[in-house]
Hints:
By secondary structure, the chain is α/β, with parallel strands linked by helices. The chain folds into 2 domains: about 5-115 and about 355-360, Enolase-like, N-terminal domain (Enolase-like, domain 1); about 120-345, TIM Barrel. Helices cover about 40% and strands about 20% of the residues. The chain is built from 14 helices and 15 strands. The chain has helices at about 50-55, 60-75, 80-90, 95-115, 120, 140-155, 165-180, 195-210, 225-235, 245-255, 265-270, 270-285, 295-310, 355-360, and strands at about 5-10, 15-20, 25-30, 30-40, 45-50, 130-135, 160, 185-190, 210-215, 240, 260-265, 285-290, 320, 335-340, 340-345. The strands form 3 sheets. Strands 6, 7, 8, 9, 10, 11, 12, 13, 14 and 15 form a 10-stranded mixed β-sheet that branches. A 3-stranded antiparallel β-sheet has the order 1-4-5. A two-stranded antiparallel sheet has the order 2-3. Strand 8 (about 185-190), helix 8 (about 195-210) and strand 9 form a beta-alpha-beta unit. Helix 3 (about 80-90) runs antiparallel to helix 4 (about 95-115). The site of [(2S)-5-oxo-2,5-dihydrofuran-2-yl]acetic acid has 10 residues, from loops.
Amino acid sequence: MKIIEVEAIPLAVPFSRPFAFASGQATAADHVLVRITTDDGLVGHGEAPPRPYTYGETAGSIVSVVRDLFAPVLIGADPFARERIRADLGRTVANNAAKGAVDVALWDLVGQACGQPVHVLLGHAADDVAAAHMIGLGTPSEMVADALEVNDRYGVEAFKVKVGRDLAHDLAAVRELRRELGDSIELYADANRGWDADTAVVAARRLADFHVTMLEEPNPADDVLGRRRIVRESPIPIVGDESTISLGGVARSLLDGDSQAISVKVARTGFTDSAKIVGLCEGLGVATTIGNQIDGMLGTVASTALGCGLRSLARHPVEVTTFLLMTDDVLTEPPTIADGRIAARQGPGLGVTIDPDKLAHYRADR
Length: 366
Ligand code: MUC
Ligand code: MG
């Protein structure tokens, strides 16, 4: 089987409301759909959500890098040769969302060629996983209303609370959430590098008082000694996310004492590198969770496949709800969350079909 075509299609799907966090705000899904076609007629898909405020990638940069740098390497390659392709694409540093979407599309093709869903190829640890919801920044009452609605409608019992702005405001929101949701609900927090080290140490102690289970990216990890001090003094584990976006980056962060757990995102490390990161962390006794790069429906299906594929990821709730912000998307069948859980697709590969009318409607290049 040989790849004959690689497309990078920019999409524009409005959100029903903005999603805000300490380092930025997303108002629409300006994602790039990567579509890879083979000589035997199989078509694989991956979704690249650009997060310029975090990684510097834009929809335009993703389209260019896939079309101009990656497509020439991919054309003629066998999708099963993922290690060779990884090495070839890996010569270009960064551009993680572009690489992640290519890798997801390759696994989609391999699954289709084998007649097996991706989560089964990865190791079939579970058929479904618990769902976690990210609560964007807002007033405490807006944040509580969001959490209660998701808990009520979808049965979700794990919430990642965005923090990292004014500490008093952050703590007021967490206090309200704990009071309204009760003690059995998991709350963990993500500051997206919004605090300095001194604030973060105080914040970690106060968040622990509300039984917040972990704290993601409290400060910029480049504040090297500051980050180590937070890790030393925090009563709850510090999670690496945007500072741990590659296999080597995760190794460095753990060895340097910058983080004690790792958020893995299919959107930036695909299935191949996500599995390598999880293996590294398993060997070191470090917990991994599946994070969300404000994924659309395709990314959500991919994250669910990863969570159901690998045992240590199936343990913690997977962040899968951001597609609910989108007013629509290009899949024929949206993901479904019920009783707090989301199931892996049973069809070969990712088990998704793209709706041609929706694709024509939402593509931003025509
Ligand atoms: C997260 O976990 O940080 C916000 C920005 C981004 O790149 O991902 C999200 C969620
Ligand atoms: Mg994060």
